[in-house]
């Protein structure tokens, strides 16, 4: 397992930071088809979910990260030629989970390959920027392989939330 020292963004190859699953106050997930319209569906689902959780003020950052994670899963996480998987379970799944002071977006895909942030000096380039954006807009991110019957991996991004009762923007 060679470590690539030149990569600025080496994702954490581990599960989420220690967050007690029993303390999740809200969780929602949606299956996404292996088509690029899935990014639009993921954005709509995120908007609805954050509105229900009264977190609409975080929508822009969270949605940007969700879009990038879903795009990466579709672009790099699916076997070639599997764009239409027929009646099998949709291969990509988006999970949103909220704790008191944390929000986690996690996207599952069937690939075992580590997400790689490509070195690029061209910040107008369409491809290769996704994980830089994820890194810039979330507080931390990483990935882990799935165990047991589930195949593939989960890439997650974590957002810190202001403590309940404190006004957004009021430091």
Give structural notes.
The longest helix has 18 residues, at 59-76. Helix 1 (37-52) runs antiparallel to helix 2. With 171 residues, the protein is α+β, with helices and mostly antiparallel strands. The chain has helices at 37-52, 59-76, 130-137; strands at residues 12-13, 26-32, 92-98, 102-109, 140-145, 153-160. Mean pLDDT is 79; it is low at 1-13 and 122-126. It is globular.
Rg (C-alpha, Å): 16 Å
Shape: globular
Order of helices and strands: EEHHEEHEE
Count every beta strand, where a strand is a DSSP E run of 2 or more residues: 6
Q: Which consecutive residue ranges, at least 5 long each, have pLDDT under 50? A: 1-13, 122-126
Structural class call reads: alpha+beta
N/C terminus separation: 43 Å
Strand fraction: 15-25%
